[in-house]
Amino acid sequence: MKRKLATARTLRLSPNEEAMFLKEEYERRRKLRLQQVREQQKYISYQIRQKVKQRREEQLHQLEEALRAEWQKAQDEKMKALEELYLSSLRAVGEGHRQAKEN
């Protein structure tokens, strides 16, 4: 009886079973590796998309700052021109009376 239990525990696979087991293990590992590669590609793609998004946002921000500075400069120039026109108009207010007195 002991002998049968000892041999029952150490049963060996037949060559066909062993080949099938090895093939299944190979396929399992292959599928696992493919899955890992797909996940890695997804992660790399995500990183690339994030970098592109960040670069686009930075460019938009720089463009916004440049346009804002250009607009502010134009506004300052307009304001300066209007102030000069206003001051020249103030100086000219009394000029009409003076010319009228002279004539």
Automatic annotation (TrEMBL):
Any one of the GO CC terms: centrosome
Coiled coil region boundaries: 49-84
Keyword Coiled coil: yes
Keywords: Coiled coil
GO biological process, any: regulation of centriole replication
Full protein name: CE295 protein
Gene: Cep295_4
